[in-house]
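Milestone 3.1: sequence recovery, worked example.
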């Protein structure tokens, strides 16, 4: 680490105590950006990096609600409005007990680069609550969402800040949030994305993060004249991203061996096929059960309390949460012959794990590039809402493929190393940075 990077990170630590995920995300970006900034005095002199790590605004609020027993519950709500240089704040809402300000700042920071990479005019934000939808009735989730929006509505808007889903926030939650927004403001507009198709949503938005991830993997494989056909894939998570990543892998002729939730993973050596995937979708989206039920139904192994990275594979797709793949997992994957790791989740691989992949010259795609398809189609949902029009499934899917192709090209442009190896992390960071930094320069000291 050079002296400027060390100095920058030390300052950051002093200014952001108790926020390890935020420090981790910024350190990763700063390490590749600072040498670039040092060669571009206009960015250095205008202190773009020092500005970009400070949220433009953070809102924190009380969320009181009544549970089914009539008792009062109190949660904490947040919206981090990180950067609006290239468009209105845009990014998901996370409902999970682990949510705190540091986690949301890390996610909002990642969103700056990701949204820039999509090529669409979207700034960056992220929000959420420590509310846990797991184990709550539909009525309780609705009560919570209504209370959350009763404060959030003041801070969001179709042209200012457009939230969407993330962990714990899917179609059901977006519906309740939208209903309450409309009730308070009287406005039917594109204030949220991930809406239902009948009320302003875009076709392919639910699929977009998982599909986009697989399109990105295809782009990487193509540089080695390979395809997904016959490849063995391990996946973590069983939520929105994991389900549609699995669906696209199966469609492309790959064999999906694992899927997980926060309690453990299942290993199905025969492969998860379309019918088994439908079972998973029903289990997770409708009955909201645990993944171990899959093992009982399809007679395969279940590993309680473990993550799937010890299973031999060609491609690994971490699709659950941050820091779910550590250095030992990375070593096990490399030893097992894995040659491609692409992040469906945000920052699922620890920095030490990434170092192992880079050393072994395994393809490694950071989330800000590989999972950008979700927010990209959210951007397309905003365009359709502005036009008051709905595009066909094929049109949105083709646009998604085009965007993932372009993001891959940006990574090649800025990430090609002297030995020919592509460092996708560096490529994504620099490419995402340049557009935002130029916009900030043009807009003066704001
Ligand atoms: N939805 C989207 O469009 C996008 C999502 N992402 C990222 O993808 C990841 C998954 O999001 P999404 O699929 O939407 O979320 P979901 O809530 O739909 O699914 C999350 C999955 O991850 C598991 N999980 C959550 N927390 C943990 C944990 N601490 N340890 C182990 N497993 C965990 C959940 O298990 P359980 O049910 O047991 O909690 C569940 O299987 C997140 O990192 C998110 O930020 C990135 C881009 C866009
Ligand atoms: O669709 C969106 O606005 C946000 C998706 C998201 O939260 C993410 O990209 O991490």
């Amino acid at each position: 680490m050079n002296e400027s990077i060390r100095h920058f990170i030390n300052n950051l630590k002093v200014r952001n105590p108790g926020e390890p995920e935020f420090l981790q995300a910024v350190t990763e970006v700063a390490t590749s950006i600072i040498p670039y900034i040092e060669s571009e005095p206009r960015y250095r002199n205008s202190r773009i990096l020092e500005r970009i790590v400070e949220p433009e605004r953070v809102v924190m609020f009380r969320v009181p609600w009544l549970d089914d027993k009539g008792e009062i519950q109190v949660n904490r709500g947040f919206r981090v409005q990180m950067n609006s240089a290239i468009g209105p704040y845009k990014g998901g809402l996370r409902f999970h007990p682990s949510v705190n300000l540091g986690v949301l700042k890390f996610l909002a920071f990642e969103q700056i680069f990701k949204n820039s990479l999509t090529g669409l005019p979207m700034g960056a934000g992220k929000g959420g609550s420590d509310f846990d939808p797991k184990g709550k009735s539909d009525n309780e989730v609705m009560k919570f969402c209504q209370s959350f929006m009763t404060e959030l509505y003041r801070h969001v808007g179709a042209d200012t800040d457009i939230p969407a889903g993330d962990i714990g926030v899917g179609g059901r939650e977006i519906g309740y949030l939208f209903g309450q927004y409309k009730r308070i403001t009287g406005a039917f507009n594109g204030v949220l994305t991930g809406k239902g198709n009948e009320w302003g949503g875009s076709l392919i938005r639910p699929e977009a993060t998982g599909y986009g991830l697989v399109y990105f993997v295809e782009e990487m494989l193509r540089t080695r004249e390979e395809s997904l056909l016959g490849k063995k894939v391990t996946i973590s998570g069983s939520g929105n991203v994991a389900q549609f990543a699995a669906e696209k892998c199966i469609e492309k002729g790959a064999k999906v061996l694992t899927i997980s939730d926060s309690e453990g993973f299942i290993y199905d050596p025969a492969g998860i096929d379309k019918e088994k995937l439908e079972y998973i979708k029903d289990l997770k989206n409708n009955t909201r059960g645990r993944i171990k039920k899959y093992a009982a139904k399809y007679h395969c192994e279940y590993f309680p309390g473990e993550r799937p990275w010890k299973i031999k594979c060609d491609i690994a797709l971490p699709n659950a949460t941050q820091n779910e793949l550590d250095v030992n997992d990375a070593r096990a994957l490399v030893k097992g012959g894995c040659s491609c790791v692409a992040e469906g989740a945000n920052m699922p691989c620890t920095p030490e794990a990434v170092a192992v992949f880079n050393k072994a010259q395994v393809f490694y795609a950071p989330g800000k590039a590989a999972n950008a398809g979700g927010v990209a189609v959210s951007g397309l949902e905003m365009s359709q809402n502005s036009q008051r029009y709905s595009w066909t499934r094929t049109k949105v899917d083709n646009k998604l493929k085009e965007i993932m192709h372009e993001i891959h090209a940006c990574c090649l442009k800025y990430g090609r190393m002297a030995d020919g190896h592509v460092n996708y992390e560096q490529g994504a960071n620099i490419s995402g940075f340049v557009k935002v930094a130029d916009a900030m320069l043009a807009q003066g000291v704001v």
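Residues 57-188 form a domain with the Rossmann fold fold (CATH 3.40.50.10860). The first strand starts at residue 57 and ends at 66.
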